[in-house]
């Protein structure tokens, strides 16, 4: 279902006490300040903090709990890894997959991500699937080809029913953590392209129903302009999700 949506990706930041303090502030501010229909909010802490943060989120499903990664196998001898079922058992509803930091530092390719998607969906979790080009790719004028390939090789093997569960995040690598955000026009044209690719791979209804987030230096100052674009349904927020005031201002930017 297409919906206004904001996810906070905490990456490898915060201790449990820090994470719990931040979570309590976000929950309180959302309760006090949100008027009208709330966007779906998801908080994605590092693995060891999931349960301790999840306890503070309440039963309403908003905010919901999400993870930042998941192993592609169901269980077994994979020391140091975490399964979809384990995430589900501590209250996760969402999992970020294919973040550019995982593609870059942990060599996750489209085939691996395609497998992870299947596993996550089989466990009843909703993937937040990330795509996005490097600066080099953008400057070579290859952005659309590159993202089209990421979608085709990583995502479009899913059935219609499976695809229904997926949120897509467009995160240009050159905008992540750099303070250099995409212009609203740059974001809109890629989001429109993604929606059009979904229409071709599935159908017009699937395209109309897909939630597509923008990520990359999205903050309390630029969120409203980005979220006002026709095909931008919200944001995947890194740095600004670590400050309760900034994050909640973004949540209020629809
Ligand atoms: P940023 O990160 O908001 O700090 O740029 C976004 C992300 O990596 O998801």
What are the SSEs and their pairings?
Elements lengths: L4 E5 L6 H18 L6 E5 L5 H5 L9 E4 L16 H6 L2 E6 L2 H6 L4 H13 L3 E6 L3 H5 L3 H12 L5 H4 L3 E4 L13 H18 L2 H6 L2 E4 L7 H5 L6 E4 L6 H8 L3
Parallel strand pairs: 1-2, 1-8, 2-3, 3-4, 4-5, 5-6, 6-7, 7-8
Helix pairs in contact: 1-12, 7-9
Bound molecules: 2-phosphoglycolic acid.
How does this model look, in words?
This protein is of the alpha/beta class and 254 residues long. It has a single domain (5-251), classed as Alpha-Beta Barrel (TIM Barrel), CATH 3.20.20.70. Helices cover 42% and strands 15% of the residues. It has twelve helices and eight strands. It has helices at 16-33, 50-54, 84-89, 100-105, 110-122, 135-139, 143-154, 160-163, 184-201, 204-209, 223-227, 244-251; strands at residues 5-9, 40-44, 64-67, 92-97, 126-131, 167-170, 212-215, 234-237. An eight-stranded parallel barrel has the order 1-2-3-4-5-6-7-8, surrounded by four helices. β2, α2 and β3 form a beta-alpha-beta unit. The two termini are 17 Å apart. The model has no long low-confidence stretch (mean pLDDT 97). Bound molecules: 2-phosphoglycolic acid (PGA). 2-phosphoglycolic acid binds at residues 9, 171, 176-177, 215-218, 236-240.
Search tags:
254 residues, alpha/beta, TIM Barrel, eight-stranded parallel barrel, 12 helices, 8 strands, 42% helix, 15% strand, globular, binds 2-phosphoglycolic acid
Overall helicity: 40-55%
CATH class type: Alpha Beta
Order of helices and strands: EHEHEHEHHEHHHEHHEHEH
Topology, number of strands: 8
Major pleated sheet: 8 strands, parallel, barrel
| Tally of structural domains | 1
What general outline do the C-alpha atoms trace? Answer: globular
């Amino acid at each position: 279902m297409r919906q206004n949506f904001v996810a906070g990706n905490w990456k490898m930041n915060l201790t449990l006490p820090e994470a719990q303090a931040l979570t309590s502030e976000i929950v309180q501010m959302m309760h006090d300040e949100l008027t009208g229909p709330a966007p779906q909010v998801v908080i994605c802490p590092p693995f060891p903090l999931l349960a301790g943060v999840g306890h503070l989120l309440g039963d309403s499903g908003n905010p919901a709990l999400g993870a930042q990664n998941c192993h592609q196998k169901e269980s077994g001898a994979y020391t140091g890894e975490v399964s979809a079922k384990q995430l589900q058992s501590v209250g996760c509803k969402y999992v970020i997959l294919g973040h550019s930091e995982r593609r870059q530092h942990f060599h996750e390719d489209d085939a691996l991500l395609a497998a992870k998607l299947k596993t996550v969906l089989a466990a009843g979790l909703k993937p937040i699937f990330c795509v996005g080009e490097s600066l080099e790719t953008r400057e070579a004028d290859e952005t659309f080809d590159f993202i089209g390939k990421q979608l085709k090789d990583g995502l479009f093997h899913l059935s219609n029913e499976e695809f229904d569960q997926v949120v897509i995040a467009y995160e240009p690598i050159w905008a992540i953590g750099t303070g250099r955000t995409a212009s609203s026009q740059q974001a809109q044209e890629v989001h429109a392209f993604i929606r059009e690719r979904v229409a071709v791979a599935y159908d017009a209804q699937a395209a109309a129903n897909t939630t597509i987030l923008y990520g990359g230096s999205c903050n309390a100052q630029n969120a409203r302009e980005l979220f006002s674009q026709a095909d931008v349904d919200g944001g995947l927020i890194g740095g600004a999700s670590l400050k309760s005031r900034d994050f909640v201002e973004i949540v209020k930017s629809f």
